[in-house]
Amino acid sequence: MSEKKYDPAVESAMNGVMGSIAGVEIGAMFGFPAYKVKGKLTIRLVEEGVIAKVGKNRADALIGQNNISKYEPLEGRVWKDWVLISESNPANYSNHKAVFQDAVKFLGG
Questions:
Q1: Element (H, E) at 45
Q2: Residue 1, domain member (yes or no)
Q3: Which of 16, 18, 25, 80 could staple 36 via S-S, CB 3.0–4.6 A?
């Protein structure tokens, strides 16, 4: 089985965005860069882009907008509180700062 990878340029862009949001802890989870609030995972890089835990209602409202889709790590297993943001240019992740702030707020940050 091949090892899943993430784009280091996305990590650099996300560190810039997330470093400017109060209450965010930058670290790693399962070998991927991750951002936590009060020790709880809220945002993480994945092979396809960035996932953010925003809550079911907010996720439902965001899906289909601006390169945002449902997050389905295994076929048929949608994470209802999460969205997947996929950008072809790592610099464009900064355009989603409001979504990342929503994720921080969702976990009480």
A1: strand 40-46
A2: no
A3: 25
